Amino acid sequence: MSKQVHQGHRARKRFGQNFLTDEAVISQIVASINPQPGENLVEIGPGLAALTEPVARMAGKLNVVELDRDLAERLSVHPTLGQFLEVHQGDALEFDFSTLVREDKALRVFGNLPYNISTPLIFHLLGFADKVQDMHFMLQKEVVLRMSAQANTKAYGRLTVMTQVRCEVTPVLQVPPESFTPAPKVDSAVVRLAPYSQLPYAINNLETLDRVCREAFNQRRKTIRNSLRNLLDEEQLESLGLVLTARAENLSIQQFCDIANYLDEHQL
Ligand code: SAM
């Protein structure tokens, strides 16, 4: 049988379908999630249920959001699993995750994400961080490196700042291409994100922070004197204690927050 066909389903490239087939990796991910009965679990992209099945066995009911109609239908009518699943057929990028909060139970989100949309999907999910207990995601390894990066490194960028300002980021394990069918062209890694109940940074408005990060990292090789000139002049940057010849990757998360707070306070 072709490597593109798994459990009678032809993998659809446009939906980023790389199915997990490595039992050891599946066990390690499920152990890290450690699902408990009564928790409010939500899976993005359940596919052929490699993670769904063991999680349902441990936790009972869970919500799943799947874009592929055939796979969503297959899960709904699944002889043993179907009764445990609330299947939402649709695009996770458009999905309002706040509708799944029940009896004040925060969400525990997980998924082996379609890599073609993983960054926008993470930004979408970070928008619901106050309703989320934690998230476990399989991602391209490079994306996990960006999320967990330190300042003064190449991997440090908008995704780093916008993730770390809201979440504790813990890389969980690295996964080689052979653990999937079909095998992706890149290495993968699992990361756990745990939103802070109280943000460890002084920040007034996360949207403004995102605006600053976009400006700064869109031209990351430039000094902040140049990359941020549309937002602040040299005097204003210096009043914040910033070195004009620094580059975006040299600023700490709190320094990005200070710039955003300055813009808000001065209505800039
Ligand atoms: N969880 C399965 C596994 O680990 O074997 C499948 C993972 S596969 C990498 C990604 C899954 O996300 C596929 O089932 C795909 O159909 C689904 N998917 C792709 N785009 C999606 C979207 N925008 N919203 C929800 N699900 C999506």
Write a structural description.
This protein has 268 residues and is α/β, with parallel strands linked by helices. It folds into 2 domains: 5-195, 3-Layer(aba) Sandwich (Rossmann fold); 206-266, Helicase, Ruva Protein, domain 3 (Orthogonal Bundle). The protein is built from 10 helices and 11 strands. The protein has helices at 23-33, 52-59, 69-76, 118-126, 141-147, 158-164, 206-218, 224-227, 234-239, 253-265; strands at 5-6, 9-10, 19-20, 40-44, 62-66, 85-89, 107-112, 132-140, 167-175, 180-181, 188-195. The strands form 3 sheets. Strands 6-5-4-7-8-11-9 form a 7-stranded mixed beta sheet. Strands 1-2 form a two-stranded antiparallel sheet. It has a two-stranded antiparallel ribbon with strand order 3-10. A hairpin with a 2-residue loop joins strand 1 and strand 2 (9-10). Helix 7 (206-218) crosses helix 10. It starts with a strand and ends with a helix. The mean pLDDT is 96. Bound molecules: S-adenosylmethionine (SAM). S-adenosylmethionine binds at residues 15-20, 44-48, 50-51, 65-68, 71, 91-93, 112, 114, 117. It catalyses: adenosine(1518)/adenosine(1519) in 16S rRNA + 4 S-adenosyl-L-methionine = N(6)-dimethyladenosine(1518)/N(6)-dimethyladenosine(1519) in 16S rRNA + 4 S-adenosyl-L-homocysteine + 4 H(+).
